Amino acid sequence: MSTGGSRPVGVGLISVGWMGKLHTRAYQSLPAVYPELGVRPWLVHAADTAPDRAEYAREVLGYARSSADYRAVLADPEVDVVSICAPNMLHKEIGIAAATAGKPFWIEKPVGRDATDTAAVAEAAHTAGVVTSVGYNYRNAPAVERIRELVADGALGRITNIRSVFFNGYAAEPRGALSWRFNRELAGSGAMGDLLSHVADLVQYVVGPISQVTSLSSIVQAERPILPMGSGTHFAVIEGGEMGPVENEDYAGALVRFADDARGPGAVGTLEVSRTIVGPQCGLAIEVYGTEGSARWNFERMNELEVCTQRGGPHYGYTTVLGNPHLGDYRHFQPGPGNSMGYDDLKVVEAKKFLAAVLGREQVQCSIDDALSAARVVSAAVASAETGAWHAVTPVLGVRYGGNRPQAEAVGV
To answer: Would the pTM of this model clear 0.85, i.e. be above it?
Structure first.
């Protein structure tokens, strides 16, 4: 096989669902989108317990071989890196196994059901010295990268307050299937683990570490029709099925305090998530307000950034900036403003950052330490929803928090 001078990287995949297919397409896109990276991913080995999915990986996606057991992927000497796209309850087991096998891994979020699971994976990865990447892809949006720069450069002044929501209607339909996501033993928390984790990662990446949380939560749909494991996705709708109880929250709201920094007292903010909301489809949004300006973005209008950096005057208000080659990695995908990027492209950026780190180049990927930081915020919110009290959040060393904080030299959990 000719690699055209590029370095071949053997890819292993664990779980061939929607996200596994998306990881695969991201790897396949790298030579065309990032030729300067100098890699040519080779699809070596995929594993899935469902025979039809294992066959699909081989016959359609193009993996050289497939298995029913993920351990076969980790034991394969031709597999250099592994994508872990299995359900949440398997992330701890598989993540630790991948680290023990010495395989750098790209794992979907959340890394386990709670902060304890995530910490165990982080410890295994640090012990083994393997590179990690975690699927918080929204931070890769060019508009988000620009807001992070505005905060770090002081263009918005001292950050005073933020608002971030993830309103996603994937479970708005009452006949929507009772997948593993609604089971506390399998998924851990509900909307908090699934959606608040994205919000926590996003605001900490842009603004800085959250130090305290208080929250509340509620279940909107108490029962749902049962979906057999592995037979569909959480978007499936079932007519007349046997009903089962929803065990974790559909909605959560939190008040947060950010850590103080060199510019003064830390910001305060509100975080809000729902998986049963009617109207928004994938409404992950962030609004950042400072003493000199503000910026806001919503994923449903991913290629638009609104910025205000002046007070008063005839043109006071927001300027809408379209996605363009000056923002983030936009130039790798589109030649000019208004030629929009999409969700899948953010996964290509993620794959690039992962493999660049594996090759010993820049370490700017969302790592297991970032995932642990988000998990600690979520765990604090879950605990607060039960007690009604404020809960402290311990920062994680080595995380590239936003704001004007340099990366910590030490790495630990």
So the answer is: yes
